Structure to design on (351 residues):
């Protein structure tokens, strides 16, 4: 074979590709940097809560979510009023669609939430059920929902937000109706329905050190000591620029939970900004996100890091907290914000 110049080039390219893969190799494209790809190098899923209406209607949202995240939490569609709107009727369709989306994109699913006192349907709130009936309703609900997705939902928020600011048990629909043992019953039923799922207690305002996180520690320790199948704690991490937990306190909190044999999930992070949103504020927001991810990566066993929404376009913040905005990693036009770049940097630091 006569070696003509373009063959020389091709040979040279091949040689370079074998010496410097994959940057020079045309057939082996470098993995694009994304939260999910860099997270995988640390073996940590980077999760996002999913707005399923947007998932259905907005292809840019779908592309963003599947490119950047390796885990999904349904933002609303598994809450009692949505998934069990009438006593004899379940609404599984949106959840099934999300499960398909997650499977297609190789994403872990974090179920949310079985026992919570908010977003309950009227038939339940106004049913005047006695204790035994309420117990059987909750048991059936948990068995049906967890059982349907058995083996496909890796982590379940079994209960959320049962403590007040002092760390004592709140008086809620469930505690009033069933009594304080509703929590252990719920964990036991969830475990019966899917013994392979990781069962979590999920709380807000208990990320650092203080009365509420002391209460969480006490609650989950006593449940474990009773043999209740609880595996982890979700630290929600809904922060603002002026009200974010100190990283060292979160580190200590994760450590003390770990000493009780519990795993930790940063389960719902967002950092709301008081309007107007400025570059300086976005930079402060980026630091808070980065600090918490760093704490999570260092704080074994912090098992996952989830943000409560992908883009400011669909965030719950402006609607629920007037005056606050821009809490997430991508802006309303899906452009990456400093917080996104800061998380990439943290993930690049070291596996
Ligand atoms: C929020 C959703 O983001 C909103 O869309 C909904 O209107 C109310 O609930 N803690 C939780 C989540 O555990 O379920 C909440 O989600 C945010 C606070």
């Amino acid at each position: 074979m006569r070696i003509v110049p373009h063959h020389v080039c091709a040979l040279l390219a091949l040689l370079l590709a074998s010496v410097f893969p994959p940057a020079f190799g045309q057939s082996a494209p470098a993995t694009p940097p994304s939260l999910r790809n860099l997270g995988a190098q640390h073996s940590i899923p980077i999760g996002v809560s999913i707005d399923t209406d947007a998932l259905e209607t907005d292809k840019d949202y779908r592309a963003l979510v599947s490119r950047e995240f390796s885990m999904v939490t349904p933002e609303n569609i598994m809450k009692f009023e949505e998934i069990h709107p009438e006593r004899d009727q379940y609404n599984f369709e949106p959840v099934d669609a999300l499960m398909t989306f997650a499977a297609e994109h190789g994403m872990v699913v974090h179920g949310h939430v079985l026992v919570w006192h908010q977003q309950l349907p009227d038939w339940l709130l106004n049913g005047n059920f006695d204790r035994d009936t309420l117990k059987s309703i909750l048991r059936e609900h948990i068995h049906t929902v967890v059982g349907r997705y058995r083996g496909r939902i890796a982590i379940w928020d079994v209960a959320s937000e049962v403590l007040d600011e002092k760390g004592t048990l709140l008086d809620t629909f469930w505690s009033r109706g069933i009594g304080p043992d509703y929590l252990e019953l719920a964990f036991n039923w969830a475990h019966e329905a899917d013994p392979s799922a990781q069962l979590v207690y999920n709380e807000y305002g208990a990320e650092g050190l203080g009365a509420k996180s002391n209460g969480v520690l006490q609650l989950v320790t006593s449940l474990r000591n009773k043999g209740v199948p609880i595996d982890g704690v979700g630290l929600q991490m809904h922060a603002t620029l002026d009200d974010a937990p100190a990283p060292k306190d979160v580190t200590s909190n994760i450590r003390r939970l770990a000493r009780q044999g519990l795993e930790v999930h940063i389960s719902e992070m967002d950092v709301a900004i008081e309007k107007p949103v400025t570059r300086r504020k976005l930079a402060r927001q980026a630091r808070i996100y980065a600090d918490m991810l760093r704490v999570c990566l260092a704080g074994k066993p912090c098992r996952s890091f989830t943000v409560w929404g992908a883009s400011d376009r669909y965030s719950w913040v402006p609607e629920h907290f007037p005056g606050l905005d821009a809490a997430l990693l991508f802006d309303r036009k899906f452009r990456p914000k400093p917080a996104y770049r800061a998380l990439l940097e943290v993930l690049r630091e070291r596996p």
